[in-house]
Amino acid sequence: MWHQLATDGIDADRYQLGYAPHITLAIYPNEAPLDRLRTAIEDTCRNWEALPVRLSALGAFPGDGTVLWAVPVVTAELLARHQAIQIALPGLEVDAHYRPGAWVPHVTLSGALPHPGPALTTLLANWEPITGLLDRVDLVRFRPVEVLQSLSCPSSGSRS
């Protein structure tokens, strides 16, 4: 989808980002203590297995520009992972959009578009639900993307 939006000259933001499609569980300020973030990720996520995910629809965040996104089916497991990150970092201020009760899980497909119609036309032309695995937890600083920590989440049954 990112490639098609870029190829059609509509939006290349995600395609050029240089980071795989993902669901963000939390965003913390750049000033957040890196050692505390690393420890929380390691302690909280080290035993997570790959989580099946199904992207079932398209969504839009309206605003000064419209951001388009793929809608994952929200499962108890996905919500539990989001909550686990929040619990692991008490007292650390998470971005308002990622707080419990406000978080909307999504896979971003575009940057802020002043006129999202052409992008929607492109995305809908070949849309079908996508099934995959959330198989990694990364601690990332961005823009540009810098992976500071990465934990693999093995598929069920592949742990020794």
Structural class: alpha+beta
Sequence of secondary-structure elements: HHHEEHEHEEE
Q: Count of DSSP E strands? A: 6
- Give the CA-CA distance, first to last residue: 36 Å
* Secondary structure tally, helices: 5
Shape call? globular
Percentage of residues assigned to helices: 25-40%
Strands ordered across the widest β-sheet: 3-2-1-4
Instruction: Report on the biggest sheet.
Output: 4 strands, antiparallel
- For this structure, the quaternary state is single chain
What features would you describe in this structure?
The protein is an alpha+beta fold. It is globular. The mean pLDDT is 95. It has helices at residues 2-7, 13-17, 34-45, 76-88, 117-125, and strands at 51-61, 67-72, 107-108, 130-134, 136-141, 146-152. The longest helix is centred in the middle third of the chain and has 13 residues, at 76-88. Helix 3 (34-45) runs antiparallel to helix 4 (76-88). 28% of the residues lie in helices and 23% in strands. Strand 5 and strand 6 (146-152) form a beta hairpin.
